[in-house]
Design a protein that fits this description.
Layout: H1 17-30, E1 38-42, E2 57-60, H2 66-76, E3 81-87, H3 88-94, H4 96-105, E4 110-115, E5 118-119, E6 125-126, H5 150-157, E7 161-166, H6 170-182, E8 187-192, H7 204-210, E9 211-213, H8 224-236, E10 240-247, H9 253-260, H10 269-280
Parallel strand pairs: 1-2, 1-3, 3-4, 4-8, 7-8, 9-10
Antiparallel strand pairs: 5-6, 7-10
Helix pairs in contact: 1-6, 3-4, 5-8
Bound molecules: thiamine diphosphate and iron/sulfur cluster.
Length: 288
């Protein structure tokens, strides 16, 4: 038993979430982190149950709202390592817009999305990453929706670290986690995963056949246009890029707030404080 074990994980046999658990726990250990230095922020869904199996601080949020909650934690306590965990439904459906805004703000959070192509926890409905024309369980025809492209979405939204992992390669997944956790900025990892219970046609073996490791192409890249081209060219061949695709150092949200947070002399802060206290009962502390 190691210091990060809280309880025995209880996902279905063969679930991809076990690999994510293993890789994340070992990444913490190899980085020499202590449980009290980490907060895992979760939404709702099978993947998000990881908070109850790994012994760190945890904030169990609501469906799709991992990133606003994680942003709050990072702003309030910049010393913590903040790790958000979502499924593809949580991240790209109800929570989709938060990915765009957290990426462009470059909030120093690691965001892990366990992408099994379905809503597992609610028994297998199609998600935003379900491939078009799939046979799905709760819709009588072939699925008519084009899927989102998480890697392109993160890249063009301004994420400063973009990677894709694969649950069939836990060692590499752990390395991507380690690199993401020490990255100074918003680090995003989409993980190609499986839900054998409700999406049994998507298997680890099938995913493995589609994988191309991006190190072979000189990644991580530090130019968004090159990274987008790399993703599109691999996907254009019907393959899936795996590895750290893009990495760049830019000011983080905490740093930007510090740099821009000087008081504006044209604003009457005393008057604002007075109104806030009178109308809302709020005590505002505004200091230069
Ligand atoms: C506001 C809200 N809407 C819908 C739900 C129902 N719900 C629970 S989990 C879930 C989706 C789970 O799928 P995903 O995020 O892909 O995670 P997985 O279970 O596959 O790991 C949904 C729609 C909810 N709990 N709250
Ligand atoms: S329903 Fe699917 S995603 Fe949920 S624990 Fe079972 S295999 Fe994993």
């Amino acid at each position: 038993m190691d210091v990060f074990e809280r309880a025995k994980p209880r996902w279905c046999p063969g679930c991809g979430d076990f690999s994510v658990y293993e890789a994340l726990k070992n990444a913490f250990i190899e980085l020499g982190l202590r449980p009290e230095e980490i907060v895992i922020v979760c939404g709702i869904g099978c993947a998000t149950f990881i908070w109850s199996y790994i012994n760190t601080n945890a904030l169990k949020g609501i469906h799709g709202r991992v990133l606003p909650a994680a942003t709050g934690v990072k702003l309030a306590n910049p010393g913590l390592k903040v790790i958000g965990v979502s499924g593809d439904g949580d991240a790209y459906s109800i929570g989709g817009n938060h990915l765009v805004h957290t990426a462009r703000r470059n909030v120093e959070i690691t965001y892990i999305v366990v992408d099994n192509g379905v809503f597992g926890n609610t028994r297998g409905q199609p998600s935003p990453t379900t491939p078009i024309y799939s046979v799905v369980k709760n819709y009588p025809f072939r699925w008519p929706e084009k899927p989102v492209n998480p890697l392109l979405l993160a890249l063009v939204s301004g994420a400063t670290f973009v990677a894709q992992g694969f649950v069939g390669d836990v060692k590499k997944l752990k390395e991507y986690f380690k690199e993401a956790i020490i990255h100074r900025g918003f680090s995003f990892i989409n993980i190609l995963s499986v839900c054998p219970t409700f999406n049994p046609t998507r298997t680890v073996r099938e995913l493995k056949e589609e994988i191309v490791y991006v190190e072979e192409f000189g990644a991580p890249l530090d130019n968004v246009r090159d990274a987008v081209d790399l993703v599109l060219s691999i996907q254009g061949e019907g393959k899936n890029p795996v590895g750290v695709i893009y990495k760049k150092l830019e000011p983080t949200y905490n740093e930007l707030l510090k740099a821009t947070g000087k008081l504006d002399p044209s604003i009457n802060y005393d008057r604002i404080s007075e109104i806030a206290e009178r109308e809302l009962g709020l005590k505002m502390l505004i200091k230069d």
